[in-house]
Design the sequence.
């Protein structure tokens, strides 16, 4: 037997399992001569010898940042020029709250940046502003979102012209800081279960806002503890009737309730405000609890876009049922989820940038009598960070697509588009924030002990981001909404209904993707085939379609004995896998589209490399699913693994350029070891072993 022939060599198909085993034993007994490099080193030498991509960082960052780059740079420059507005490490909760308010006032009144004007008219610019603000201080980004997107957005989206005329300027210039009082102590995700009541009094032409029990106290309300003067309060609208019931519950509506005196900031009669205190993160946001004791507000304070009450107490609405009105109301509030998904990608970019730059500079160990090597040259570090870097790019393009669809929804008010954005935002918010939460810990670990220093931000980023998995919809609940929508689309497909944009691929999936896998294609293992976007996207969608078909069958089976609720609970983990697989399919589709649309050749080549890593890494991580149904043959599975490792190394070769493509300011990505321009520039010239 040729000792230079390795176990990995399968160029001779006649080698049986037994002969491969003999070969393995032979190599143990007769090791390779010292002069021969190991198979791993051969792979690395070949990878290094390959032409390294030349990436035009300016073109890449221009493509990534898009048309709102100027306003983001203006924000960063403003705060960098104001040391008095920069958040110090170790700031106390009370100091942080007051600093956040000063930062927000300075942004609006001194820098003359008015985010509220873009909430409805140009959402893409609004989210670009929040991304830049969040990189300065996450608490400031959330406080800005509470003021303009939640409090202000509820007035614009749920109210009518009279509310806009009365409140717009005060919200815009911060004379009217406000809150968004939806969540209650006993009800968060189940908004229809809210217990706060708004009872109409026809004698005085007022609504009476009441907290009927402790469980109905509004809880975790941003801006409530210190700065809020108004609150949009979500409550059940109760109308008096002349029948035996005496009252009629019209469902959850939104009401503007003043909570503090505009001049003295004293709490108004009937309002009780309590401070929620110190939190795991976001301590610059003054979360509070609100209790209402027979607080009277004018009838005009009902945000009446979807339902109104006349002077004589009669209810009118263009929507016929409580459920339709509720769905329309929540549909208009979906911007919060869009913003969280978008902002979470910003967290991921910052943490990946810090970890990659640190890993390029940090040197530990190496061959005997030779200099130490960069820790990013170790395969384990590459496998931690390179797929994460690829995901950062993938999520960037997916969330930009989400913002685009949301902007279209705000202009067109198309019912189908509203439903599509609702499900898409639920999936992306849940998937991206969950991934980012895990990645923040991985990045901290990848930077060793230096990553534990507070100044390097991993701790604060992790703590501030953690709640992203809960507010604007618990991630597990949101993923169930995605699964429910997929099942509805599946049912509609067989009833001849039309499919919304995001689910168009299901039109073919029940036929193409669920047919018996082609045994020839299942064995194709060339790099060209595996890097073909069609193969990658087909594989993602095949997985989604298999999960959809199987969970639909399970639900039908279990509903006969357990009922619909019991069947859903029995299949819950399966449903969550389905929603995750679908969301991954959408993300990959948008990434492939972004690669195709990139105008610069060098940037397009870099993005293609990153996209391939994203796709094949996901396929390999779930290779068992594909093997179980013979979608991928054993030799193809091995080829996917090898190519994924190769792509991981190639992405590592341009990792410095890729994080530079995010174009994040140095003040945002300060790193554990000095990464000032000279040291970093010198090191980026030496990439490779």
Sequence:
């Amino acid at each position: 037997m040729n000792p230079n022939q390795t176990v990995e060599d399968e160029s001779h198909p006649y080698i049986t399992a037994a002969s491969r085993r003999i070969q393995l034993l032979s190599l143990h007994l007769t090791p390779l001569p010292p002069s021969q490099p190991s198979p791993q080193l051969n792979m690395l030498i070949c990878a290094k010898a390959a032409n390294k991509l030349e990436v035009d960082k300016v073109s890449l960052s221009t493509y990534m940042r898009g048309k709102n780059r100027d306003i983001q740079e203006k924000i960063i420059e403003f705060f960098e020029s104001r040391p008095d507005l920069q958040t110090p490490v170790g700031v106390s909760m009370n100091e942080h709250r007051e600093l956040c308010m000063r930062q927000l006032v300075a942004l609006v009144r001194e820098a003359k940046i008015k985010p509220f004007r873009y909430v409805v008219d140009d959402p893409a610019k609004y989210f670009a502003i929040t991304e830049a603000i969040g990189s300065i201080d996450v608490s400031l980004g959330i406080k800005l979102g509470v003021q303009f997107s939640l409090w202000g957005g509820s007035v614009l989206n749920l109210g009518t012209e009279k509310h806009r005329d009365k409140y717009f300027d005060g919200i815009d210039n911060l004379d009217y800081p406000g809150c968004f009082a939806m969540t209650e102590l006993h009800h968060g995700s189940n908004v229809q279960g809210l217990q706060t009541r708004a009872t109409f009094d026809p004698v005085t032409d007022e609504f009476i806002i009441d907290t009927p029990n402790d469980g109905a106290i509004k809880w975790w309300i941003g801006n409530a503890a210190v700065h809020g003067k108004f609150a949009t309060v979500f409550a059940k609208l109760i109308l008096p009737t002349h029948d035996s019931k005496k009252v009629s519950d019209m469902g959850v509506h939104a009401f503007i309730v003043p909570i503090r005196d505009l001049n003295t900031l004293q709490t108004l009669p009937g309002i009780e405000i309590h401070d929620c205190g110190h939190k795991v993160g976001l301590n610059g946001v003054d979360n509070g609890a609100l209790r209402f004791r027979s607080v009277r507000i004018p009838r005009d304070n009902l945000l009446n876009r979807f339902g109104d009450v006349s002077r004589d107490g009669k209810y009118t609405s263009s929507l016929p049922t409580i459920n339709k009105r509720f769905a329309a109301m929540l549909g208009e509030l979906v911007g919060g989820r869009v913003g969280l998904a978008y902002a979470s990608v910003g967290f991921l970019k910052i943490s990946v940038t810090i970890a990659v730059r640190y890993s390029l500079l940090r040197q530990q160990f190496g061959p005997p009598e030779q200099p130490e090597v960069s820790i990013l040259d170790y395969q384990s570090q590459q496998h931690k960070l390179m797929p994460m870097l690829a995901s950062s790019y993938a999520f960037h393009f997916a969330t930009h697509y989400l913002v685009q669809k949301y902007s279209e929804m705000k202009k067109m008010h198309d019912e189908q588009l509203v439903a599509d954005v609702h499900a898409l935002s639920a999936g992306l918010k849940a998937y991206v924030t969950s991934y980012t939460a895990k990645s923040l810990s991985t990045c901290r670990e990848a930077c060793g002990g230096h990553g534990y220093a507070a100044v390097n931000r991993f701790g604060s980023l992790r703590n501030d981001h953690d709640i992203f998995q809960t507010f604007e919809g618990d991630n597990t609940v949101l993923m169930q909404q995605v699964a429910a929508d997929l099942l509805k689309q599946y049912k509609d497909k067989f009833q001849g209904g039309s499919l919304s944009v995001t689910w168009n691929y299901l039109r073919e999936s029940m036929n193409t993707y669920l047919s018996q896998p082609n045994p020839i294609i299942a064995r194709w293992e060339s790099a060209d085939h595996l890097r073909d976007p069609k193969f990658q996207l087909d594989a993602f969608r095949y997985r989604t379609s298999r999960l959809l078909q199987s969970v639909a069958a399970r639900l039908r089976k279990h509903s006969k004995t357990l009922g619909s609720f019991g069947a859903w609970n029995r299949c819950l983990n399966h449903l969550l896998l389905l929603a995750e697989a679908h969301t991954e399919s959408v993300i990959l589709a948008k990434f492939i589209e972004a690669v195709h649309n990139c105008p610069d050749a060098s940037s397009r080549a870099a993005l293609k490399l990153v996209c391939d890593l994203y796709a094949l890494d996901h396929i390999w991580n779930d290779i068992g699913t594909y093997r179980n149904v013979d979608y991928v043959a054993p030799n193809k599975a091995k080829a996917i693994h090898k190519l994924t490792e190769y792509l991981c190394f190639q992405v590592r070769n341009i990792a410095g350029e890729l994080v530079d493509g995010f174009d994040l300011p140095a003040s945002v990505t300060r790193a554990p070891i000095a990464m000032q321009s000279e040291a970093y520039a010198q090191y980026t010239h030496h990439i490779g072993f």
